[in-house]
């Protein structure tokens, strides 16, 4: 019913009059309630077909828990999309320190170009990747030691296992196996019936590596060491030098066999050299008009990815994907909505300009505008607040009072400079104001005697500010879904796209910007 939420605001004053109804309306229009997203599990199952996923090295050895969670989930999805489309090249837009890029190259043997606008960040990513490769042999040695240790532990435990337990385990495994055999297979057509994909693209995924075949035939004993063995999966098949008894054979070889072995050795070294350089960090500023072939000399059929691409970069990623025939798929997770450029925010008539919002023709025809305050709100994390990670009320209060001081004393209402994370580096409100004024290049001597007066004047309104920010948090998912649906609608408007959707990838408590915009080109474009 269109009138259900009509009493949230006063018709005359436009003020909020029903907080409970406001919260219900915000929940109703959030992504989880609109029914427009595709479940990650269903998409993965459709992409894989009969093939199983690969267990790989645990990313928390190299990065924070948040980044580890993001890279683990997204890299698995990217690998499945790449296999489905039959491509081996990935372009990581806004690659930053190269967490996703290096993991895609080492774990999934994909050729990845990581593009970032900062040369400092690119050099840092290159150095990080070099250090990561140095530790491969150490992980291999540690993996072997752990495997042997676990085998001994299992051997010692066997005598005390009862026949009843063994029987129940065997029966459980048998029942599980039968259940799996009777499960219906999900295809891309099941996820999005109008997609038009056939089994030919999926058939490319039927080729399995030696590691996959070994994993499928593991006994219960070897499964105990699965996580340790997974460390070795990070290397290409010929990147690990395995000792062979033939190396110690002192039998004299004929000249012909020596030549054959020499050629084979050179080929192995060349292949090893190629596989050890599967990640290439590059520095370039990406816009909607960027020609990727100018940056990547060996550009081939590929897919574009972006893990928390900032502001307009997320929108430009989708535009490049739609325009370039060699890009067969895209998986983009945006962030920093407050940095989006808006076509109708300042009512400027710039038809030639490429804007971050809106993208789709429907919202353009409506002249839709969010405004910076709304876009700032979209960056808030409702799920984190819901589990007790409260808003930083004191720092928000400091920032609000500072703005009043700047307007009253200096007459400044807008500035291109930013205060940044000054609160965490300040010992008091006075210290915070002085450091902030210095960053804004304002004379702090003008406020020597009145800083505390402003603090005392507004201190009693701190609870009011907290309540206001809680309302912004409740509204945040609605604003975010507007931006995401705008991007999805833009993709739906393109004639060369077979399927597009919104997919919730991450745990929103760990990673609040958790939704990916994903699209696949039509087969005629392959």
TrEMBL record:
<dbReference type="InterPro" id="IPR052220">
    <property type="entry name" value="METTL25"/>
</dbReference>
<dbReference type="InterPro" id="IPR029063">
    <property type="entry name" value="SAM-dependent_MTases_sf"/>
</dbReference>
<protein>
    <submittedName>
        <fullName>MET25 protein</fullName>
    </submittedName>
</protein>
<feature type="domain" description="Methyltransferase">
    <location>
        <begin position="66"/>
        <end position="343"/>
    </location>
</feature>
<dbReference type="InterPro" id="IPR025714">
    <property type="entry name" value="Methyltranfer_dom"/>
</dbReference>
<dbReference type="Pfam" id="PF13679">
    <property type="entry name" value="Methyltransf_32"/>
</dbReference>
């Amino acid at each position: 019913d269109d009138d259900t939420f009509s009493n949230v605001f006063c018709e005359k004053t436009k003020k909020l009059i029903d907080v409970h109804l406001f919260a219900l309306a915000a929940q109703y229009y959030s992504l989880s309630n609109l029914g427009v997203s595709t479940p990650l599990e269903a998409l993965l199952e459709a992409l894989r077909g009969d093939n199983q996923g690969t267990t790989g090295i645990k990313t928390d050895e190299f990065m924070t828990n948040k980044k580890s969670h993001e890279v683990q989930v997204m890299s698995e999805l990217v690998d499945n999309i790449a296999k489905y489309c039959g491509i081996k090249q990935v372009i990581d837009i806004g690659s930053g320190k190269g967490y996703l890029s290096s993991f895609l190259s080492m774990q999934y043997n994909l050729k990845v170009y990581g593009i970032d606008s900062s040369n400092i960040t690119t050099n840092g990513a290159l150095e990080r990747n070099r250090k990561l490769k140095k530790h491969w042999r150490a992980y291999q040695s540690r993996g072997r030691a752990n495997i042997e240790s676990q085998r001994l532990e299992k051997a010692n435990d066997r005598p005390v296992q009862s026949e009843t337990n063994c029987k129940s385990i065997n029966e459980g495994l048998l029942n599980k196996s039968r259940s799996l055999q009777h499960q219906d297979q999900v295809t891309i057509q099941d996820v999005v019936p109008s997609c038009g994909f056939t089994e030919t693209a999926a058939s490319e995924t039927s080729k399995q590596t030696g590691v996959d075949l070994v994993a499928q035939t593991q006994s219960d004993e070897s499964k105990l060491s699965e996580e340790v063995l997974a460390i070795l999966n990070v290397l290409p098949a010929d990147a690990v030098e395995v000792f062979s008894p033939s190396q110690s054979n002192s039998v004299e070889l004929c000249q012909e066999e020596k030549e054959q072995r020499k050629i084979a050795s050179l080929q192995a070294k060349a292949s090893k050299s190629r596989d050890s350089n599967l990640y290439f960090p590059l520095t370039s500023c990406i816009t909607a008009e960027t020609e990727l072939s100018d940056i990547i000399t060996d550009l081939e059929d590929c897919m574009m990815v972006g893990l928390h691409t900032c502001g307009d970069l997320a929108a430009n990623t989708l535009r490049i994907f739609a325009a370039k025939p060699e890009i067969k798929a895209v998986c983009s997770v945006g962030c920093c909505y407050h940095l989006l450029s808006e076509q109708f925010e300042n009512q400027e008539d710039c038809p030639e300009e490429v804007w971050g919002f809106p993208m789709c023709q429907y919202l353009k025809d409506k002249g839709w505008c969010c405004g910076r305050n709304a876009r700032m709100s979209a960056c808030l994390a409702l799920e984190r607040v819901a589990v007790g990670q409260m808003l930083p009320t004191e720092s928000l209060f400091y920032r609000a009072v500072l703005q009043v001081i700047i307007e009253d004393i200096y007459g400044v209402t807008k500035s291109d400079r930013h205060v940044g994370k000054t609160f965490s580096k300040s010992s008091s409100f006075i210290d915070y104001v002085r450091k902030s004024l210095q960053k804004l290049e304002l004379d702090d001597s003008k406020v020597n005697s009145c800083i505390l007066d402003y603090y005392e004047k507004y201190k009693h309104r701190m609870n009011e500010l907290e309540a206001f920010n809680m309302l912004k948090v409740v509204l945040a998912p609605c604003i975010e879904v507007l931006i995401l649906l705008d991007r999805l609608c833009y993709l739906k408007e393109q004639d060369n796209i077979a399927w597009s959707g919104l997919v919730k990838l991450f745990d929103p408590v760990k990673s609040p910007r958790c939704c990916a915009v994903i699209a696949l080109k039509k087969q005629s474009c392959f």
